[in-house]
## 1
Amino acid sequence: SSSSSSSIFCPPFPNDQALDTYLASIAPPRELICPITQELLKDPVVAEDGHTYERNSLLTWFGMGRTRSPVTNSLLENTSTENLVSNLAVCSMAVAHRERLGKELIGICQGI
């Protein structure tokens, strides 16, 4: 039959709860998400407001003439790019999250 010849890449989840549980298990912690892009951080920096952002996103934010915090809306005294400090701890956590997802994906692919 035609249905047996079609391959299923990813078997469906038995129910919505199983899907929600899986999605929650692979979602990055909120601390690893840039407040501007809503994406997993790659090159995180700490701004004057104490929050962590993706470097390029914050540079674009400042480049548009914005002088307020994207998170708190408080006025930032200094929007100089020299004041941005890499957040090495968050960077290593984001790398670890990517590695965990990569290993999981390899495991899924090996099971197909």
## 2
Amino acid sequence: MIEITCNDRLGKKVRIKCNPTDTVGDLKKLIAAQTGTAAERIILKKWYTIYKDQITLGDYEIHDGMNLELYYQ
């Protein structure tokens, strides 16, 4: 299990526990369950990289303790 922190820079900071084999889409569903926002409206970024739903966290080399930027459509 790894723990990822997502910050939307509007005061909402979410800590999510998931597996490295989970996809980004699975992570968005976990974030949506905690924030109450629809998973389809969530965009995850790190610098200028937008993470795609079908690729796993391990493929993106997202590790324990990483911070991701949380945006809404």
## 3
Amino acid sequence: MAASEPRILLFPVDNTDYSQKAFEWMLKHFYKPNDEIHLLYVISRVQYAAILGVPAVDYTPQINRDMYEAVVKEAEAFIVKRFLTHLSPEVTSTPVVHIVKSEVDASSVGHVVCFKAEELKATCVLMSIITKAH
């Protein structure tokens, strides 16, 4: 009998305790051996514009490569710290990490998540609660 196809689990992340706790819950209660985990972080227009010090309405696609690389490095650092170092021994492969810069604002990141889920043919999308409290 052939091995079953792995489930593709898409987990959008951010640099919050909520996201980290949801990831740990997923590993404990939902993950099965052979599952393929994909972590997705979206750099929104608002976030990138704030780093450049310009209003989001004035945002242009021209990028300051040093600033952009700094945002990506910051994302990589928190993904390693909050997620990759918390993998349980049952996880047999390293998750795939996707860092995507998007022209959407922070409230529209869901569209990017859905697009990525369709692209990956994800079995499901698991994520933390969304909060505007921080």
